[in-house]
Amino acid sequence: MADERSERTQDDDQQQTGHGHWLQWGTLLRTGLLLLVVLLMLWLVLNVQVPSLGEVQGSVDELRDTIGQFGWAALPIFAVAYAAVAVTPIPVTVMAVTAGILFGTIEGSIVSVVGVLIGCWGAYWLARALGHDTVRRLLGRRSANIEERLSNQGFATVFLLRVMPGMPYWPVNYGSGAFGVGQRDFVIASGLAAIPGQISLVAIGAFVVDPSLWTGIVVAVSWAVVIVMTVWSYKSLRGTSKRELPGSALADAD
To answer: What CA dihedral angle connects 80, 81, 87 and 89, to 10 degrees?
Structure first.
């Protein structure tokens, strides 16, 4: 009996040791991946010069000629480029405005929404791969505030942070993936909340090259919708809204 207990104890110790080795390797891999992601983001921020709105406006014809060479593939190429930008800390504003300049209000809005959602979804899953602790280090001083907001009411928080003017996309993407927001809540909230914001930015780009009454109305209406939805989502998050946010029933469904 004593020998059997001794063998069991040795087996348990070996299993714990092996488990500990796997945990160490997992930590090392995640730390290495974090380092690569941080270095890549720093390189993109420092080396990728996103043109200013003035520069974009000054070279409209050249941009349209360049993108026109791709024919039907211009829209999917732009969507892929937009998605790549949305994964990084590079602001997406210029991409949305450029879409309005190149493609107009309708096509520009469609390609912007598709591109930004693909990028947000990719960043969400990248954050899940990196893990909770790794993303906390990546977000830095913002992490505690973002985690607190996302941990309780994920859908309403993502909705608010996504529709709120001036709020960067990337902390919401990475925070949602790492801090327990479900994929369905994230996708529905991001999709519905990003639409008015993207349209409002695309409309500005379209208005730059075509300052017509139609584009002016689209700019005014889209920004009014953004403001209304920001207030609505804020009240919903605080529990003072009498109406549920769009898509909340789908997000809460089992």
So the answer is: -170
Asked whether the beta carbons of 143 and 170 are under 8 A apart, the reply is: no
* Domain match, 28 and 119 both: no
The count of structural domains within the chain is: 2
Range of the domain at 38: 1-47
One domain, residues 81 and 32: no
Same domain, 127 and 17: no
Per-residue pLDDT in tens (0 to 9) along the chain, 254 residues: 545 555 554 555 544 444 444 445 444 455 555 455 444 554 444 454 555 555 555 566 666 777 777 788 889 999 999 999 888 878 888 889 889 988 999 999 999 999 999 999 998 888 887 776 666 666 666 666 666 667 667 788 889 988 988 888 888 888 887 777 888 889 999 999 999 999 999 999 888 888 888 888 998 999 999 999 999 998 888 888 888 888 877 776 54
